[in-house]
Amino acid sequence: MLTQCVVVRNRIQSPSNHFCVLIPWFALWPFCGVSDLIGVPRRIRKEEITGLFGAASNVVSSDAMLVAAIRSGDEQAMTQVYDRYSQIVYSVALRVLGDTAAAEDILQEVFMRLWRSPDAFDASRGSLPGWLAVITRNRAIDSLRKRREETDIAEVVVSIEPDLTNRTEWSRALEKIHSALASMPSPQRSALEMAFFEGLTHTEIAARTGEPLGTIKTRIRAGLLTLRKALNP
Amino acid sequence: MSVHEQFADNLSLYALGALRGEERQAIETHLKECSACRQELQKLRGDLALLAFSASGPRPPARSQGRLVAAITKEPRRVHLRQRSRRTWWNALGWAAALVAIAIGVSLRLENSALRRRVAELETSSSKQDQQLLEAKQLLAALSSPDAAHFTLVAGKTPPQPQGKAIYVRDSGTLVFLASNLPAIPPKKAYELWLIPTSGAAIPAGLFKPDTRGAAAIIHPPLPTGVEAKAFAITVEPEAGSSAPTSQPIMVGTRS
Questions:
Q1: pTM for the whole thing?
Q2: Quick one: angle between helices B62-74 and A75-97, nearest 10?
């Protein structure tokens, strides 16, 4: 227990602001539970136990742990999150903007926002890659449409089931998403993609396709539910 | 699904940020009071994230990471005030707890060595007492042991007479009685020793049967304390004993 706590803390936090390493181990052992709580808020403990990326949970930190470390100013943790999710963020930005320089700007902006206000992401309620993907899309659309941000990122809670906690689950989920999109009727798929990647409103889509507004609305919702079902059959 | 159907389509449009004006306001008002729809909104955003994941493109260029790291280094995260104070508080608590633990440890250690000393003392005194007790037991055993050799010393050529000797301590009610050369006792009978107080009835002081040599001993029978004895007497009684003498004494002895 003690070993685990010290290892975890040293890895994701700068030891200087942690009393664990400063006082003798024998004075500490009864309080290990308390020391666990110092940097890592109570609400993410479950995920710590579950661990990210499978069995080697003492080697790889969970997203929640990384965000907690970022909250305490750990630059190393920030780099780890970047390694993990920069490709998703960049891909989404590039897909929306179609321009690498603009996509790089959005990438920089999104990660800087995580760095500046990690509290905006609530690990107990949502998925970090999901949150990053959604706010990236929103920022990219805002930038595309030259408008100001509409939704507070702290209010964006993105819940994905099941939790995509390891690489295998990830690639399996990606396969399912691609095949769900491929098997979707093409008007439904393009309505979905126009709404999401181009940021068109249902009214704009209806005008572009010449179809009734209600049909577009229904297609969008049905398309989203199809994706959800693809992961939770 | 427990989501309000009238909001269902608009909820996905809201998640996409496509709602404007009144429609948008209506849904925001509804979301404030409907947790089922709030949950559904989170799930719809999850669905949008899945759609976003489908954009799987290339990794960002390597320079992007350098740019981010440079920006982060230039802008050390200001630790949230609440966070910092909570941390300090936890830190203080941790230190306080550690100090208390150390104090408790020290006091336990002191108490422990005091107790050890006390135990050692008690052990010494207890072993002394054990020794004394053992000696006393051996002494008492010698008095009543059938293996003990008895010698009756008399003056001149007087043949050995039946004889009894009672040693009595009034205040503690302690009695040692030794007899020798007693005549054999008839079957189903026993001798009974009596304490005759200066006033009142005789008090039974023990039943006994002499051995083949006519010897007997009574060591510390149950007696009341503080009774002044005028004399001791022996009677022949039924084997079970009597609470008061039922025959004339065969031997009587007054205080010498």
A1: 0.54
A2: 130
